[in-house]
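Quick one, tokens below:
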């Protein structure tokens, strides 16, 4: 990409000072500040939909985001001489979020809350919405049931298959409970869907001199903003053996900006109650070449089962 796509930079209204490789992108220093050049696959509809929202976020003075930049022809998508399609995004001098440090974790949550608060004031047509929670959990539950049935047909079982088969007894009841929790919650509560990041994790947050920098809004949609918080928290807690102190530190940081009332905590409880990482592991195994057995899968499953008591202890403190 570094060589094939650089000709598109001539189609933008700035002077290029230098380019260098980033993580899956090309970083571009220009006379108007840093930019990010990224290969683009898609119809462009979602990009056009979210671009005005990102521009408004940058005008807030509270958070910086990687808003899309139009080329000289007024288009967000630019085609190279070789037929590749690219988008250019604004960027800011910043350092990565380092989750080894408690303060960086808390800063990420605080900036997420800032983002959510600003998104509450933004409007866009509801063209992109998340799948209803109950429907999503039911689908994943059916997938786990299918995987369980498949494992039962394997004649010569390796260690992973034996451990996975046994693990269903612990995790499938959790799936069923999360579906029941969702049914009960949505029959009597209503939390309005707002614009969400859609894929918030520590790779998408950086820290500038004054403001946080949030990127990668490719999955922005209408949904429950708390899903962003849950997604970030789950990945942090999985790396910290579901440490309750870290978990409640994140709750407190978010609550300082956006109040986490009892209704919102109950929704977070539902999110955490679904064994998401277990489903990801089993679904990944099932969809891969099943004859190929990576030892890493076994190690992941062993660790997941080992940590599940700590996970359940954390969840129990929420409800």
């Amino acid at each position: 990409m570094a060589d094939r796509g650089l000709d598109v930079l001539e189609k933008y209204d700035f002077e290029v000072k230098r380019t260098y490789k980033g993580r899956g992108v090309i970083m571009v220093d220009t006379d108007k500040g840093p930019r990010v050049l990224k290969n683009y696959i898609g119809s462009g509809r979602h990009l056009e939909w979210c671009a005005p929202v990102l521009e408004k976020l940058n005008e807030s003075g509270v958070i910086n985001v990687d808003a899309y930049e139009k080329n000289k022809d007024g288009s967000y998508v630019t085609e190279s001489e070789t037929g590749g399609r690219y988008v250019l995004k604004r960027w800011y001098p910043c350092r990565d979020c380092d989750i080894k440090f408690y303060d960086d974790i808390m800063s990420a949550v605080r900036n997420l809350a800032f983002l959510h608060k600003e998104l509450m004031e933004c409007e866009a047509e509801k063209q992109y919405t998340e799948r209803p929670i109950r429907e999503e959990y039911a689908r994943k539950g059916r997938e786990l049931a299918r995987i369980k049935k498949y494992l039962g047909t394997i004649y010569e079982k390796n260690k992973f298959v034996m451990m996975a088969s046994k693990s269903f007894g612990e995790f499938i009841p959790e799936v069923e409970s999360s579906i029941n929790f969702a049914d009960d919650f949505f029959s009597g509560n209503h939390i309005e869907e707002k614009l969400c990041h859609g894929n918030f994790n520590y790779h998408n947050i950086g820290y500038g001199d004054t403001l946080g920098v949030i990127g990668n809004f490719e999955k922005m949609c209408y949904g429950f903003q708390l899903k962003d918080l849950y997604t970030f928290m789950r990945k942090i807690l999985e790396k910290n053996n579901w440490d309750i102190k870290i978990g409640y530190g994140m709750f407190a940081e978010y609550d300082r900006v956006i109040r986490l009332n009892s209704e919102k905590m109950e929704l977070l409880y539902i999110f955490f109650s679904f064994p998401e990482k277990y489903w990801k592991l089993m679904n990944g195994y099932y969809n891969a070449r099943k004859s190929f057995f990576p030892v890493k899968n076994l190690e992941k499953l062993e660790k997941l089962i080992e940590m599940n008591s700590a996970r359940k202890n954390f969840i129990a403190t929420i409800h």
